[in-house]
Every structure is written in C-alpha cells, then in structure tokens.
Amino acid sequence: MENVFHVLKERGFIEQCTHEEEIEKLLGEESVSFYIGFDPTADSLHIGHFIQIMVMAHMQRHGHRPIALIGGGTTMIGDPSGRTDMRQVMTPERIAENGEKFKKIFEKFLSFEDDKAVMLNNAEWLLPLNYIDFLRDIGAHFSVNRMLAAECYKSRMEKGLTFLEFNYQLLQAYDFYVLHQQQGCKMQFGGNDQWSNIIAGVELVRRKDGKQVYGMTFSLLTTSEGVKMGKTAKGALWLDPEKTSPYEFYQYWRNVADADVKKCLALLTFLPMEEVQRLGALEGAQINQAKEILAFTVTEIIHGENAAHEAQNAARKLFAGDNGDAEIPSVDLSKAELGDGRDIVFLLEFAKLIPTRSEGRRLIQQGGVLAAGEKVTDPKAVYTASDFKDGKLVLKKGKKAFKQINLI
RNA sequence: GGGAGAAUGCCCGAGUGGCUAAAGGGGGCGGACUGUAAAUCCGUUGACGACGUCUACGAUGGUUCGAAUCCAUCUUCUCCCA
Asked: From the CA of A247, how many Å to the C1' of B35?
C-alpha cells in the first residue's frame, strides 16, 4: 500500500513534522495509532476541523488507527494558542452537549468498527486530576521560560495571558501522555497553531516514559492572501446543514478565488492528484469548471449526493437567469400575512435578505434588488398576491443572494 | 497591596464643551468591469413611521442653555512597583 505520508505531502497537508524521516518510515511500516483533539467550543464543527477529519480519513484508508479526541476537559480551560483574546469560559453542560454533537459528525466520516478508530473524551482523565499531584508529576517537566518564548503566545504577551489559559498546554501534553500509555498512541496531529502544544506532548512522553513519539501539523486553510478561509457573512462555514445550508456551503466553494482552487481540491476532496493538477491548471473562464467540481465534491462529502445535486441545480438555474424552480432557498408567507399587499422592504426583511429596513431602502436606491426578474426602483413598491406567479416570487439581492417566497 | 493610564460605531483609531450620527483606515454591502474569480474604480455603511424623530462614545449620577468631551462614584482592562 502507498505510504500515507507521501499522500499527505503531495496533497499539501503537511506543514511541520517533529521528525520527518522517522515519521515517513513509521507510517510505511506499521499501523499507527494517532490522535487529533477537537475542543467542543461550538455546537458544530466547521471547515477548519474538516481538514483534520480529512487527514484522519486518509490515514484510516491507509490502515492507520485514528483516535478522535473530544476535548471535554481542555475546553474547560480554553486554548490561548494563536489567539488575540481570551476564550469565553463555557459551562460544563454546554461543553458536554457540544461534545455529543461532535461525536455524531465524526461517525459520518470514520469507521469505528472493529477498533479501526476510537473516540475518547479527555474529560475522563482531566476532570479527576488532583492539583498537587499533577504539578509534581507533570508540571515539573515544563519550563516557563520556554513556554513564554513560544510563538503561539506572542500576541497574548502584549494583551495579557491568564494563568488559567497558560495551563492549557500542560493539559494537552498530558493527553498525549495518557493516550500513549492507554492506547499506544504514537503520533499527534493538529492545525499548525497546535505546534507548540504538540511538541510539549512529545517532550513530556519522552521525559516520562523515555519513548519517542511524533507530531505533525497541517496547514490551516487560508486563501492565497493569507486570510483564514471559511468565513462567511454569518461567521464560520459550518458542517451542520442547520447552521450553514448545503446551498450556501456549495456557493462558498463555487466562489473561491482562482488561486485557491487547486489547494482546496487537494485538501478537501479525495480526487486523484492528476485530476487535481489538471483542474487547477485551467485558466480564464474555464476554471469555473474546476470550481463547480470542487463545490459539488465537497458538498457531497459533507451533505451527501442528493443535497449536492440540489445545491448545484439551484445554483446553475439562478445564475443562468432561469428562476423557475423550487430548489432555491425559500420561505413561506401566509396569505393572511400578505393581506392586501406588502411593500418590497417588508418582503426583503421577511425573506431575511436584509437585517433592517434601512438596509433595504438603501439597497433599492443603489439598484441592488430584483423581484421576479425586474429591477425594483421604488422602496415603497407594493406587492400583492397577483405578483406571485404560481404562488412564488423570487427576490434577488445583489448578484448572488436569492430567496423565493412561497405564498401559502 | 501601592502608583500611572485606558475604555469611542463590526474592528482598529481620531476627536478633549456647541459646526459630531462622530475624521481616517479595515471589513461589510451595492454598482461598473468580468468568468458566480482576482485586481481596480464609484457609491454606501446606527435605527425608525425618513428633508423629521429616536438611540449611541464602559456604567450610574452630576455641572451646563448645551457633554463623547468637565466632575464624582463604580466596573473592566493595561502598564510600573511589590
């Protein structure tokens, strides 16, 4: 079987390794147990986590054993790495709830049968810890001097870092130590922002057990301009269809910058690299084909084939100017609520295309609103039941935002 | 524990008694150009019953005809000393 290290390297996942040659050798020789930690700070995973999930999937396909670690314990502290502000302290109930949701998502991407992958929660061993014992056993191995010098705290050295957060690294290192002992875990992966935490774990295992374990980090998904990808107007690009609809999700990828197409295909899909190369090399208007494939494939992996087809059809129809079908994101408006007619601003607000009525008026004045294909020029224009063809009215805001109102 | 300073719109950041819904930048949104791209350019960016009204410059109270700007108390944060 092909060495997964080469696959990950070729696809551009790998950013830093603790011991490149040894890791390559190890992954080529035996089935390795490795772990990636996910802190349940929100009620859904987002696209940043998805990269890590892809890595686990690639690894599992090549015969290795993923340990998906849910950070029920570490989330009680909050990881300060690479952040400019302190994380909000979360209640244990919320953390547990979010953790359950994470579990369900992992089950979609990994096979947990026959111990081919395991899912654990570090709350199990972190919550019962005794402070004094922990300090003596684990804390003694850490150098504050070294920790402070680490790049990941840099921005926090200016703004302030609490002792609570400062302890995060010890806990993550301890996770690795526990997993090494209990699960024979030899590697830890993570986003590039996890580098310091991962090295800390590698060193702790070496000091405590005298064993060599390894760490590797993966590129964070950034645009060619270095901005974090996966940000939408509403915040993160979530994997949960309730939080980010498959259509929105599809559109996000359909609209990535030319320069990022190849990278996204390599990191977010399982398409063979020859295909990725070919698609990424397309130029001019042709690269739109590659973007369609990217959008469809990623949506398919996350939301399934049907949802991907629906999203694609809706997008194609809307951008082809054919507003005829029901796959467009829509809202229902009762006849009673429409009454003798409502003004355009009401309809825009009702369809959640605008946050305030002022925004709606401004938009109309700037010529950014189309109703049933006609540009709306008067903010006071009133729409009645007769304007709904077959009980439908498609509103278009700008070039890319559509919403259909169904009269019921 | 002692001392110094800061808190402004989504973010950064000017403003130190009326001309301030608050400069400038970033971001967002709309338009032009295009390929549902990037870059660029133009416009816009508190809300609402919209040439007017209301709410806003950490919180509360006060001085004043009038406060983001002055005073008092409080809260939070940063820095220096311990």
From this structure: 20
Fold of the A232-319 domain: Tyrosyl-Transfer RNA Synthetase (1.10.240)
Task: Spell out the domain ranges in chain A.
Answer: 4-218, 232-319, 330-407
**Which residues of A define the annotated binding site for ATP?**
231
Contact A69, A175 (CB under 8 A): yes
Provide CATH code, domain A4-218: 3.40.50.620
Q: Which residue is nearest to nucleotide B10 (CA to C1')?
A: A233
Judge whether residue A228 contacts strand B, using its CB and a 7 Å cut-off: no
Nucleotide nearest to A284 (CA to C1'): B35
pLDDT tens for each residue of A351-388? 989 989 999 999 998 988 988 888 898 888 899 988 88
C-alpha A353/C-alpha A118 separation (Å) is 43
Q: Is the pLDDT confidence value at A221 over 80?
A: no
For the domain A330-407, what is the CATH code?
A: 3.10.290.10
Binding residues of A for L-tyrosine: 35, 168, 172
Rounded distance in angstroms from the CA atom of residue A84 to the C1' atom of nucleotide B72:
35
Token pair in block for residue A252 = 């996000």
Residues with Cβ within 8 Å of A71's Cβ and at least 6 positions away in sequence, in order, are A37, A38, A39, A40, A121, A122
Top-confidence residue, A303 or A157: A303
Report the mean per-residue pLDDT for chain A: 88
Q: What is the ipTM of this complex?
A: 0.83
Query: Which chain B positions come under 7 Å from a protein C-beta?
Result: 28-32, 34-39, 43-50, 77-79
